[in-house]
Amino acid sequence: MIWDGDGEFWGNVLIVNKPVIDIVFSCEEIKNILLFLKSGPHDTEFIFESLEMSRQDLLSYMRVLEDSFLVARSEDVWKLTTIGKLMVSKMISLLSTANVLDSDIDYWGSHRLDLIPSHLIKRVDELGMCKVVNTPLSNADELNREIIQTSFMSGSLFVVTAFFDPKYLASLSDLAQKNVSIHVILSKTMLDKAGSRCTRYLEKLVKNKSVHFYIYPKKMAFQDFMYNDYYLLLHLLKNNGGYDNKGVLCSNPLAAEWGKDLFGYYFEDSIPVTQVQPRNRYFA
After folding, report:
1. Res 233: pLDDT
2. Residue whose C-alpha is closest to residue 48's, from 20, 70, 78
3. 8-91 adopts what CATH topology?
4. Those residues with Cβ within 8 angstroms of residue 281's Cβ, 6 or more apart along the chain or in another chain
5. Could you please report the per-residue DSSP string of 194-248?
6. Are 181 and 175 within 8 A, CB to CB?
7. Cα gap 179→211, rounded to integer Å
8. I want to staple 84 with a disulfide (CB 3.0 to 4.6 A). Which of 39, 70, 172, 279 is the partner?
């Protein structure tokens, strides 16, 4: 333990007159005690047995927490105070956010997080366990492998994309034939490309009752993202604004809710596409 001279030792624990935030994150043991007590009051023996620490060490840490008004004791039972509950709720959010970013800090740090709507970047902790996947944009099967497979079970797929490849439409067609409900928000640029290069294919999809296309008239702030009940796949732009074959795949129920809210953000300003006419005219 490093001591800066401000405080005194209680057993093996240094008690310092420091802000609550410094106490909360002073050591792993204190953090674990606070998180453990989130489930409710527990007696001393149950706590030290569960956390695998000695009674002496536990009581020393509890003294620090009690003096900081984070925990309270009634006979031999410890519980979080109102201040303790408040701090733990903030701790969980902070630790969850750190876990998301630690999945691959190089990816998160080199991509445009500032382009994610502010109300959703504040909820990035909801993404849970994520992994960075290398998904070549020229290969639709590789692009959406996990999501394509689980969309059959989910029965639905939601996509927002500024990227176009003919195989992209082929993957959507395969899903639609299996009665998967598909909702796709396209950038105007992508729809123009799809209309000029795959007019008949696009017409067929637009007429399919399982497929719903929308035009987003403004500039999109990322390559694409898609989600179903099982996965969220997010391709962010690089810090220099360039595209990237790498994306973030998250498998967590809250991640799907996060994706739903991001889809809703773009859906709000989108226009339904019901017909495809020559020369790339689209009608709502």
Report:
1. 93
2. 78
3. Arc Repressor Mutant, subunit A (1.10.10)
4. none
5. HHHHSHHHHHHHHH-TTEEEEEE-S--SSSEEEE-SS-EEEEPPBTTS---SEEE
6. no
7. 9
8. 70
To which residue do tokens 């595209």 refer? Answer: 243
Contacts of residue 123, defined as CB under 8 A and 6 or more positions apart, other chains included, come to 258
CATH number of 103-283: 3.30.870.10
Domain boundaries, the chain: 8-91, 103-283
Q: 16 vs 6, 155, 161, CA distance in Å?
A: 6, 56, 53
Q: Which has the closest alpha carbon to 222: 213, 214, 233?
A: 233
Q: What is the DSSP letter of 5?
A: S
The position carrying tokens 């993404």 is 127
pLDDT value, residue 188? 78
* Span 163-179, pLDDT tens digits: 766 677 778 888 888 88
Question: For the chain, which residues score pLDDT lower than 70?
Answer: 1-17, 135-144, 164-166, 193-201, 275-284
**HSE value, Cβ hemisphere, 13 Å, CA-based, for 49:** 5
User: Across the strands, what pairs with 132?
Assistant: 248
Kindly state the tokens that stand for 69.
């008004």
